[in-house]
Amino acid sequence: AGGILGRQVQLVEGSVMDMRLASGQFDFAYARLLFQHLPDPLGAAREIWRVLKPGGKLVVFDVDDELFGLFQPPIPEFTPVLTAFGQAQAARGGNRNIGGGLWHILRAAGFANVEVEAIASHSAEVGVENFPQHIHPDRMRSLVERGLLSEHDLEQFRAGLARFSALPEAYTLWLMLMVCAEKPQAS
């Protein structure tokens, strides 16, 4: 691709479980919405630890559906959808409630100075219309096809989301977790 980007960035395709990269060569690692998909998040954290230099930093940005957020006014029809979405993730070996366990996972992998911060995004600044695209009922169709959500529940959610989105006072706030950690300096 050439240019400055071609000289400063090298893309390497692989697995976080076995990066096939030399140990201790990176200053920084960033995992965005990755850990929720992993059957072995501790193994992934250990592999990231391995490739970081002493003093290297890791930032994990991920979800925890226990802290999903809120809708004002509430959309009670969303609850079965969120539950089914979590079940689908679990069936693939993931965990949509990983956020609450990230501190312990990173500590068990050998990281130090682990800090957790909740990051909120809300509709007051960007408009409520920018949020439902992520939870649009059409994106949840596979939950019905897999038997995790009934057609009735999906249509109830579609109607509830439409009612919510049409309200001028509609407000939503979603939370994500950012966990920062450091590979200890060599002693």
What does this structure look like?
- There is one protein chain.
- This protein has helices spanning 3-8, 41-51, 78-91, 102-108, 123-126, 141-145, 151-166; strands at residues 26-32, 52-62, 69-72, 112-122, 171-182.
- With 187 residues, the protein is an alpha+beta fold.
- Strands 1, 2, 3, 4 and 5 form a five-stranded mixed sheet that branches.
- The longest helix is centred in the last third of the chain and has 16 residues, at 151-166.
- It starts with a helix and ends in a 5-residue tail after the last strand.
Bin the helical content.
Answer: 25-40%
Low-confidence stretches: none
Could you tell me the strand content as a percent range? 15-25%
Number of alpha- plus pi-helical segments: 7
Distance between the termini: 41 Å
Instruction: Let me know the largest β-sheet.
Output: 5 strands, mixed
How large, in whole angstroms, is the Cα Rg? 20 Å
- The topology string of helices and strands comes to HEHEEHHEHHHE
Structural class computed from helices and strand pairing = alpha+beta
Number of strands: 5
The average pLDDT score comes to: 93
Oligomeric description of these chains: single chain
Outline, from the CA principal axes? elongated
